[in-house]
Amino acid sequence: MRYTNCFIPTLKETPSDAEVVSHQLMLRAGMIRKLAAGIYNYLPLGLRSIRKVETIVREEMDRAGAIELLMPSVQPAELWQESTRWEQYGKELLRFKDRKDAEFCLGPTHEEVVTDIVRREVKSYRQMPFNLYQIQTKFRDEIRPRFGLMRGREFIMKDAYSFDVDSSASDLSYDKMYQAYRRIFQRCGLRFRAVEADTGSIGGSSSHEFMVLADSGEDAIVSCTQCEYAANVEKAEARPAPAEHAEPRPLEKVETPAKRSVEEVTAFLGIPSSALVKTLLVVADGTPVAALVRGDHDLNEIKLKHLLGCETLEMANEEMVTRVTGAPVGFAGPVGLNIKIVADLAVQGMKNFVTGANAGDLHLKNVTIGRDVTPTQYADIRNVVHGDPCPRCEAGHLELWRGIEVGHVFKLGTKYSEALRATYLDADGKEQTIFMGCYGIGISRTVAACIEQNHDADGIIFPIPIAPFHCIVSAVNTKDAEVMAACESLYRDLGAAGVEVLFDDRDERPGIKFKDADLIGIPLRLVVGSKNLADGKVELKTRRTGEVELLPLADAVEKIR
Ligand code: ATP
Ligand code: MG
Ligand code: MG
Ligand code: MG
Hints:
By secondary structure, this protein is α+β, with helices and mostly antiparallel strands. Helix content is about 30%, strand content about 25%. The strands form eight sheets. Strands 3, 7, 8, 9, 10, 11, 12, 18 and 21 form a nine-stranded mixed β-sheet that branches. A five-stranded mixed β-sheet has the order 25-24-26-27-28, with helices on both faces. α1 crosses α13 (about 445-455), α2 crosses α6 (about 165-185) and α2 packs across α13. The chain is elongated. The model is unreliable at about 240-245, about 255-260, about 270-280, about 285-300, about 320-370 and about 370-385 (pLDDT under 50). Bound molecules: adenosine-5'-triphosphate (ATP) and magnesium ion (3 copies). This is Proline--tRNA ligase.
C-alpha cells in the first residue's frame, strides 16, 4: 500500500487522557480513535493488526475442530432470565427496550444464546461432541472503561462453546482449547503464561487464564521456574505456613518506635530481610489514606484502588510520608499484612489511618487468615512472594509477574444446560444433561497487550505476525527519479513475494518518515536514498534491534521474504 493512499493520522504529542502506553501509542500511530468512553473506531492500521490476530485465532480454532457461526449482539431478556443472569449480571449488562416494550440486552458473552441454539437442535448423544465459535463485537458497560482497547466497553472477542455428553468428554474438549490457545499466543509472537484462575461469576469447575506478561498488567501471577505450575495470585496456592505458625497466635497490636533498622524489624517480625520493604504513603483521591510497605515485588495498585474504592492512587516516598503525617518513618512489615490493614480500615470507612509511620500502635502481628482476615480479602492480598518454593514440584521457585488477561478457558459443567434444559438422549434412550465449556479471547485487547509488551521510547515494536505491515519502503528523496524507480520495483517485487509492504512515497523530510515508521512499529524498514543507490545499495533497518545493514538493491527482496 502507498502511504499517500493510506489513512494513517499519526500524532506528535501524547494525548493527555491516555494513561497506558498501548493507548497512547495506538492513538499516536493512528490505529484507533475514540468515539465515546470505551468505544473506539478501529482505523485502517489498527484494523490490519486486529485482522491478523483474528486470522491466527480462526486458523487455530478451525484446526482444533471448532466450527464458526455468528450470533446476534442483541439478545432477548427472556434467555437471561432463564439462566438467572438477568438479575445477577448487574450494570455491566446494557439493557434496553424495543418499540413494543420488549426487553433486550447487548451481549457481553453468549452462553445463553448458544445454549438456546443447541437445546433446540441437539437430540442425541450421536450429535456430540462439537464446539461452536464466533468472532464478534461484545458490549460490557464497564464501570471504568479506560486504557483504550485494553478495557473498552465495546470490544472484539472470539468466544467458543463446547458441547459434550459427560464430564470426561468435556475435559478433552477443554484440553483441545487449552492447547489451541497456547498455539495462538505463541503464533502471535507474545510472551505469556497460562495460569490457573478463579472461576468467578461465570461459574464452573476449572479455568485457566492466558496472561501476556507486561509490567502494566492488572493481574499479579506466579509461575514456577521448574514445572508447569502457574497461577493467578488470586488463586495461587498459599505457601505452607511455617511449623511454628501452625497454631494461630493471638493478634497483637505493636508499638512502633522510631527508626528501627531493617534487621531489627525483620527479626522482630520473623520474616526474611529480603521480604522488605519500603514505607510508602497511599494517597487516594487526594487524601492520605495510609502508609504501607512494599517488598521487592509490586503491590497491585489496581486492586488497591478497588479495595479503597478510589479513582486515583499515588504512592509517596518516605519523605512525603513524614511531610504529610508529621511522623518519622521507620517501621516496616510484610506487604500482605499492611494491605490487610488498609483494606479493613477502608471497609470500616476510616480513611485517615496511618500505618508504617510512627503514629501509634497501629501495626498488627500474627494475622491469621480466616480469623483476622476473610479468605476473600486474603485472595486480594495473598502474600505470595517472589522466590517462594513452588507448591507443586518442590524443585523450582516462584517467579512473580504482572499479566494482562487476553484469553480465558472455563469448564462450565451443566450450569447453563441445566438452567436452559439443554439435554440429549444417551445410548439407552435416557435423558441426560449436556456438559459445556466456554473459551474467550479478547482480540482487540490482544493487540493492545502486544503493544504493552513490545514498545520503546520511539513507538511500537510489532512482532511480525501482528504487524499491520511487515516492511516499510522509505524513499529518502521523492524528487529523484532513480530512487522512486528503485522503490517502485522493491514495492512490486516484495509484494509479489508475499511481503506486506507500506511504501512511504510521501513528499516529506526523511526525519518525519523515519519517526512515523518507528512510531507505527513496522518490523523492517528499507531506506532508499540517492547516495547509497549510486553504489547500488539500500539500507535495511530492523525495528527491534535498531541494527542497520547496507545491502545490494538486487538482494533486498531475497533477504526479506
Ligand atoms: P477482565 O478480568 O479483564 O474484566 P473478564 O475476566 O471479565 O476480563 P472474560 O469474561 O473472561 O473477561 O472474557 C474473555 C476475554 O475477553 C478476556 O480474557 C479478555 O481478553 C476480553 N475482555 C474482557 N473484557 C474486556 C474489555 N472490557 N475490553 C477488552 N477486552 C475484554
Ligand atoms: Mg470483566
Ligand atoms: Mg478476568
Ligand atoms: Mg476472564
